[in-house]
Predict the 3D structure of the following.
Amino acid sequence: MTPMPSIRVISADDHRAYLATLPSASFLQTPGWAKVKSEWRSEHLAWVDDQGTTVGAALVLYRQLPKLKRYLAYLPEGPVIDWSTAALGDWLGPLVRHLKGEGAFAVRIGPPVATRRWSAAQIKDGIADPEVNQLGQVAPLDRSAAGARVVAQLHELGWRHQGAEGGFAAGQPQFVYQIPLVTADGSAHTEESLLKGMNQLWRRNIKKADKEGVEVTTGTKADLKAFHDLYVHTAERDHFTPRPLRYFEVMYDALNADEPDRLKVWLGRHDGDLVAATLAVRVGQHSWYSYGASSTEKREVRGSNAVQWAMIRDALAEGATVYDLRGITDTLDADDPHVGLIQFKVGTGGEAVEYAGEWDLPVNRVLYKAFQVYLARR
């Protein structure tokens, strides 16, 4: 019988070193992310086998309850463990015991495990079908047996799934849109094959941006101010609340301290005018489009398409296996205002991916219930 791995507290450097041995991990589970979320108390943990070898790791963020020394212990898109195991309790049991000792009244995890996938063609057909309103009504291209096993085990262990209307949670998105950068047989895509996978409008817009002379470059920390100005303009136009410039400055410093160029600023200019700007993150073989902004003026030069294409090509050149456009809702209702987001991303030719989502384990049921009431009133 294999002994259960044990939990120990490790340094940020040891955590960083372990993650560097893996193909990838979510950037939300990197030591740098603890510095971004400085309003949370953080802790770095490792699972260690009986040989003393590190076999898993986690970044834990502790959010304190008002007026009480009790915490929600949050592991965004983590922990980084062997999720293929049939004995998940052997991994999560020691974690929960440790977090309870640290004053956690509840634990929230986000297994980085896919459960279902849909092709771009399936989504396009779903939007066109008046009988279809949600992604779940479309038979998936793929159902993950490994994902189903994780979900079943979490239910059995008493964890509670944190569903969210439309697929957007208070935490991380359950539905994302991704472009695989490798083929089914494991060989790398080429720029030509990726372009071929895009729809006609995307290809035309990329060509238009090139013809109009849109120049795409990567910037430095000094360019965050230009990105942020455009991002605030975008927030006003699209009716969302922007983050302050300081947030992005901290994010830039923290993630790039973990590894140079982990976070890149991308800028698209036309005749000197900034028409699109984005932030991209890469950890090992996984690249994410993190934040984006675009000008209302000069939309006809297609700066956003030009910047996205430059980011995709960069991810491919750096050896990434997936380009992640992050969250989408699960709506396919043509009249829903959120459907424009999925239509923009579907044009890239990738696939919609459903993850296992976020799960809570109440450690103190009375405090957990009070916490839920508090959240509902906010």
Observations:
- The CA atoms of residues 57 and 80 lie 5 Å apart.
- Residues 114-143+163-355 form a domain with the Aminopeptidase fold (CATH 3.40.630.30).
- Residues 165-169 have pLDDT under 50 and may be disordered.
